[in-house]
Amino acid sequence: MLRVPVLSPDGKPLMPTKPSRARRWIRDGLAVGKWSDLGVFYVQLTQQPSGEATQPIAVGIDPGKRYSGVGVQSPKATLFLAHLVLPFQTVKDRMEQRRMMRRGRRGRRMNRKVAYSKRAHRQKRFDNRRQNMLPPRIRANRQLELRVATELCCLLPVSKIVYEYVKTRGSKSFSPVMVGQKVMLGWLSKLAPVETQFGYETANLRTQLGLVKSKDKSAQTPESHAVDGLALACSEFVQYKSFHTANTRGHTWTGSVVLTPSVFRVIRRPPMSRRQLHLMVPAKGGVRRKYGGTTTRHGVRKGDIVKAEMAGRVCVGWVSGDTQRQISVSDANWTRLGQFTASKVQLLARANGLVVSRQPIACCFARSYGGIKPHSASAPIPPHPQGHAVSRRSL
Q1: Same-domain pairing of 183 and 299
Q2: In this structure, what are the phi and psi dihedrals at residue 242, rounded to the nearest 5 degrees?
Q3: Do residues 176 and 246 touch, judged by C-beta distance below 8 A?
Q4: Is 294 in the same domain as 146?
Q5: Is 256 domain-assigned?
Q6: What is the pLDDT of residue 27?
Q7: Distance from the Cα of residue 170 to its chain's centroid
Q8: The domain that contains 337 carries what CATH number?
């Protein structure tokens, strides 16, 4: 059965509840339904609860270079699954472009007719050659994972975060996933206690739980990366421990956990370009056109969720650009749906720095480990900023 996160009147995360109880609370005025930045529906109580006791809830994060997996698990239910599309390649390409543009500007400023010692070279104002600097593409990857973990800790009473630690032979900078691991663990430790686990341990537990992993890493499905995050979260409740008796000794799996259907989200950063004062190719007449930035000429910002209409066709998506009279609207993969007249575009929700696509409920994990039977699934049907008619399967 699906679970709905619950917050106290002062915003403290409480244990999730059943969808039927959440609907009853909203009907009786005991709670207010809201949507989080992760596209997860939750309720906030209007009165102080009778108790605030919680159970263990673990968050598993499987970091990667281009994709990451996140899973949230309690002893009796799977609460959340996510597939993160990391901005690694986008940030890398833009940093290379920025480097090339800077070199071009510096080259045009130089007066090569004078001696090298007399040229107008600006001296460095401070020593920026730090040896512990995190590359921007790695920092962007880890910050997206941190943003998702922070949002989850605001919705659920997380008691443990399990992070997969990558270890390879040779240089520490061999794999982009290895770079910045200690920095990431320091960030996560401010949210909840953190434990690390190696990749082979995750694979063994995933096999023991009966989870199937897809070979297509780019597929936006739970089987590509979210299963690893789920296995990491389950490691808090199922362990491989040694035993010793009078006649034998060895290792065995101990503990129990229930894997149930849960919401599944594909999360990415909106690939918006930063505002550029100097374009790659100078315009004729010295007049530079506007490029990049988040503002538009029609009162909406890039990344806002809007509803647009054109020739009887209604689209719901994210603002990705604008012209003098039109607004460009794109889907979750940032593929343009069309250019719509500004007067026929309606703002639904402001940008929050995330693009979350609502995928069907992940039902392939409905199994138990340890003798507890899984429950059936049902979900509330509240209004969502991305549309007025939200089906049961898309929550």
Answers
A1: no
A2: -85, 150
A3: no
A4: no
A5: yes
A6: 95
A7: 30
A8: 2.30.30.140
Are 183 and 329 members of one domain? no
Q: Is the CB of residue 184 less than 8 Å from the CB of residue 62?
A: no
8 A C-beta contact, residue 349 and residue 358:
no
- 337 with 373, same domain? no
| Residues 296 and 328 reside in one and the same domain | yes
Residue range 26-74, pLDDT digits in tens: 999 999 999 999 999 999 999 999 888 999 999 999 999 999 999 999 9
Residue 314: φ, ψ to 5°: -110, 130
Split into its structural domains, the chain has a count of: 2
Closest CA to 146 of 256, 68, 80: 68
Q: For residue 337, what are the domain limits?
A: 288-349
3-state secondary structure the chain: CCCEEEECCCCCEEEEECHHHHHHHHHCCCEEEEECCCCCEEEEECCCCCCCCCCCCEEEEECCCCEEEEEEEECCEEEEEEEEECCHHHHHHHHHHHHHHHHHHHHHHCCCCCCHHHCCCCCCCCCCCCCCCCCHHHHHHHHHHHHHHHHHHHHCCCCEEEEECCCCCCCCCCCCCCCCHHHHHHHHHCCCCEEEECHHHHHHHHHHHCCCCCCCCCCCCHHHHHHHHHHHHHCCCEEEEEEECCCCEEEEEEECEEECCECEEEEECCCCCCCCCCCCCCCHHHCCCCCCCCECCCCCECCCEEEEEECCEEEEEEEEEECCCEEEEECCCCCEEEEEEHHHEEEEECCCCCEEEECCCECCCCEEECCCCCCCCCCCCCCECCECCCCHHHC
CA atoms of 11 and 154, how far apart (whole Å) = 8
How far is 203 from 82, CA to CA, in rounded Å? 18
- Tell me, yes or no, whether 94 lies in a domain: no
Q: Does 106 reside within a domain?
A: no
**369 shares a domain with 251:** yes
Instruction: For residue range 305-331, list pLDDT tens digits in order.
Output: 999 999 889 999 999 999 999 999 999
Residues 341 and 361 in one domain: no
Domain-embedded: residue 280:
no
